[in-house]
Amino acid sequence: MEAIEVERGGSGYSLKSSRLNNEDILFCIDVNPESSVEIKTTGSNGRPITRMDSIKQAILLFVHAKLSMNPDHRFAFTTIAKSAIWLKKEFSSDIASAEAAVRGLGATSPCNHADLTSLFRLAAHESRKSTAQNRILRLILIYCRSSTQPQHQWPANQKLFTFDVIYLHEKPGPDNCPQEVYDALVDALDHVSQYEGYIFESGQGVARVLYRCMCLLLSHPQQRISLDDLDIPKPLTKKLPPADTAPPNEVVPVTSQ
């Protein structure tokens, strides 16, 4: 895939192309029982759906969209309860293979410990193989626990892959500490991510928020701006034209996107 860099010269601007590496994208899905709780969103038949249902749908939307951009991206899948376990080890661009892996996702028994060290070791091992093929590896973790802070031990000078996180949680309460969990995930991201890593969180229990976060993760790590500068989607007020641009007594229509 070609990226465009803009350079300014004496006579104006010129466009210089640079090559983006194809991605090997490793999903890791939290399969603690909190991943199977019902959310506010309902299915087409009016029945409630679970957090895992929405995760599966979001992953498949991501895979289809990513391959439509570049059919040479590849995907593999792991899960995490206490530690990381392979769900589908071989990286592949095959849609049917990804769909089969996602269909196999399901919650396990409760676990009050989450070891990201095992996940990072696995990702680092795979990243070396990706690098040898002029590819880059990205790890996307979808974490669902509201009271279990993930742990990790990792050398500060080993940043071999990009790390993205989507954190789905319950509201704070006597038994929940989502802020502390989120802070631990931010610390892990800052510690290991090679390129700019993104982290998004939601305690709303609404599937569309997850889908929106997953769409933002479609951005290639080598093209990203800082997460602090990311302003997508923009507030509705920023989409409205200045008041003086509308003719007198004309109603300016507002649409939601």
UniProtKB/TrEMBL annotation:
Highest taxon of the lineage: Eukaryota
Chief location of this protein within or outside the cell: cytoplasm
CDD domains: vWA_BABAM1
GO terms under cellular component: BRISC complex; cytoplasm
Cellular location(s): Cytoplasm; Nucleus
InterPro entries cross-referenced by the UniProt entry: BABAM1, vWFA_dom_sf
UniProt keyword annotations, A-Z: Cell cycle, Cell division, Chromatin regulator, Cytoplasm, DNA damage, DNA repair, Mitosis, Nucleus, Ubl conjugation pathway
Region (Disordered) residue spans: 236-257
BP GO terms, sorted: cell division; chromatin organization; DNA repair; positive regulation of DNA repair
Family membership: Belongs to the BABAM1 family.
Protein name: BRISC and BRCA1-A complex member 1
Organism of this sequence: Cucumis sativus (Cucumber)
